[in-house]
Amino acid sequence: MKTLGTVPHPQMMITIFMWNNRYLIKFEAGPYEQTFKIDATMAENPEDVKALVDDDFCEKVLRRFIEMNKDFGLLLQKL
Questions:
Q1: Tally of CB atoms within 10 A around 16
Q2: How confident is the model at residue 77 (pLDDT cuts 50, 70, 90)?
Q3: What residues does 3 pair with on adjacent strands?
Q4: How does the average pLDDT of the chain come out, rounded?
Q5: What is the 3-state secondary structure (H, E, C) of the chain?
Q6: Whole-angstrom Cα distance, residue 39 to residue 18?
Q7: Whole-Å CA distances, 47 to 34, 41, 50, 73
Q8: Which end of the chain is more exposed for a tag (fewer CB within 10 A), N or C?
Q9: What is the DSSP letter of 42?
Q10: From CA 57, how far away is CA 66, in angstroms rounded?
Q11: pTM more than 0.90
């Protein structure tokens, strides 16, 4: 897996990778991560992929992290 770059964000680590003829956009926050895969034929270069990571999409990813945290908290209460 080759790291192609990062996208600055105050609340998440966002990294762009190339692996198996796919671009991967990986979002990390605390113990959680979300990865989105895009076929390499759909984008001409890594900058096109980075451009997809706009404020609207990042907000949706953050909301998903909040839900993941709630679900994980409920799971841990079962211990």
A1: 21
A2: very high
A3: 17
A4: 97
A5: CEEEEEECCCCCEEEEEEECCEEEEEEEECCEEEEEEEEHHHCCCHHHHHHHCCHHHHHHHHHHHHHHHHHHHHHHCCC
A6: 10
A7: 20, 14, 5, 36
A8: C
A9: G
A10: 15
A11: yes
CA distance 78 to 12: 28
For residue 69 the two structure tokens come to: 């945290």
What phi and psi values does residue 57 have, to the nearest 5 degrees? Answer: -65, -40
pLDDT digits (tens, 9 = 90+) for 53-63: 999 999 999 99
How far is the C-alpha of 25 from the C-alpha of 51, rounded, in Å? 11
For the record, the structure tokens of 43 come out as: 């984008």
Write down the number of H helices and E strands in the chain: 2, 4
pLDDT at 78: 96
Q: What percent of the chain has pLDDT over 70?
A: 100
Q: Which residues contact 51 (CB under 8 A, 6 or more apart)?
A: none
The identity of residue 12, as a single letter, is M
